[in-house]
């Protein structure tokens, strides 16, 4: 029986591909990749010519069976996504579950993940946090999710793209209040890395004023609802938002 290695890859800086990740990617029989072209570019940089096969949301169920059969036959495979850690807002969950159900050893090669990278520099409480991934694209659904999170005491972490960052900050202000402390981590490990902190209102003002601050990839880290007074205010706002969502 082979092993399925789940390998984290860089979120920007290629030097973040660990020596062990390079060795595993070199030695496995094949690499399941979200986007084979993207992964081949990464592999080429390290002189690795292991074959890659495409595993994405739309074919994951179908491919999982074939991959598990290869693992059962003794091949070792790796799973990577385009950037960071597979399964974290990325495909792979169904393949890993199928492999585990078949009794295959699934072994991590840990490394970069934007959620942990952002938390590590945000300077917000991080012993406990809730990772919310991407918010819904539709405004009404997004506002509803944010309203539900308004009283959450743990630090909140969201992924966001450049298309929606301004709207998301505006919706967060409405749900959590202007003064809630937050951190905007942009383009981590890349040339234009910036980590801004301030109240949600101040962050939104910076993003609105500077188009460069709307470019690239973002992690938004928001401090949890604080003491009772904060929580009560947030609860009031949550109820208001839920009621407002029902109004025509
Ligand atoms: N699996 C990845 C991980 O472990 O971080 C996340 C994949 S998800 C499809 C992509 C999102 O992660 C981006 O939209 C952004 O929110 C975040 N992200 C990825 N790379 C980033 C970076 N260098 N700086 C800031 N955020 C990043």
Ordered list of secondary-structure elements with their pairings:
Blueprint: E1 3-7, H1 19-27, E2 30-33, H2 36-45, E3 52-54, H3 60-72, E4 77-80, H4 93-101, E5 105-109, H5 114-122, E6 129-134, H6 139-149, E7 155-161, H7 165-176, E8 181-186, E9 194-199, H8 200-209, E10 217-222, H9 228-246
Helix pairs in contact: 3-4, 6-7, 6-9, 7-8
The structure holds S-adenosylmethionine (SAM).
Enzyme class: transferase
InterPro entries: 4pyrrol_Mease (IPR000878), 4pyrrol_Methylase_sf (IPR035996), 4pyrrole_Mease_sub1 (IPR014777), 4pyrrole_Mease_sub2 (IPR014776), rRNA_ssu_MeTfrase_I (IPR008189), RsmI_HTH (IPR053910), SAM_MeTrfase_RsmI_CS (IPR018063)
Organism: Luteimonas yindakuii
